[in-house]
Amino acid sequence: MKTAIVTDSTAYIPKEIREKHNIHMIPLSVIFGAETYAEEVEISSEQFFAEMREKQELPTTSQPSVGMFVELFEDLAKEYDAVISIHLSSGISGTFNGAVTASEMVDTIKVYPFDSEISCMIQGFYALEAADMANEGKTPDEIMSRLNEMKQSMRAYFMVDDLTNLQRGGRLSGAQALIGSILQVKPILHFEEKLITPFEKIRTKKKALNRVYELFHEDASLVVPMRAVVIHANRPEEIEIIKRDLEAKYPHVEFMTSYFGPVVGTHLGEGAIGLGWYKK
């Protein structure tokens, strides 16, 4: 059986890595006024943050249409027997549900939708693992079983550097954002029950990042093989330093770097940094 792997753009897997692992991507979009851009296709992360600095209004985002999913699945049916479609958390987007609806409309190929319950490159870890297993000839059921096993150890924490986007997007009241700015509060967010929720509010960026490192150490200190990713919103030099420091401390962990693209960056804002990991 030949199985195709699909994910959406919010996994933020670089194009060269997607092509290497034969991962198919369906994009979400970011909308500035009358202009709509498919992320990872028509607008890069760097272009997005440059555009954000020039605009007064926060952009909006949109998920792929069911028709886009149907078209992709029918196209894959020409070459594959099954599709595993891995998407960002259904608690923050209707993308996963769109894949489910499309799977019920296509009868030329069996589709297995998977709710990652998370986003960004941590979601991408599921796609990479699934692609490796598909290339080894594993069945869809075997791959889905492994993805659910991975979910048990998957962790991710995000430090928001600037509260402006959370406030402008309606995630914080004006008073809360003002107090956060005065007190230098850097909220740590995580996914809980498929939603992005506050984990802790910490004063100063340095303390917030140190707290994230502490959380990572709780798992990494067990010295079992792990895979981790450091994620940034337009701070590439900073996360390279973080990655090197972590690699020196945890040689048993395979580290990657990634980025918050336009859709997720709309809400987290420039300067956000995340760390995600799972046990291999």
Automatic annotation (TrEMBL):
GO molecular function (one):
lipid binding
Does the record bear Transmembrane helix in its keywords? no
- Family matches, as InterPro entries: DegV, DegV_C, DegV_domain_contain
The record ties this protein, via PROSITE patterns, to:
DEGV (PS51482)
Alphabetical keyword list: Lipid-binding
Q: What is this protein called?
A: DegV family protein
- Where does this protein come from, organism-wise? Metabacillus litoralis
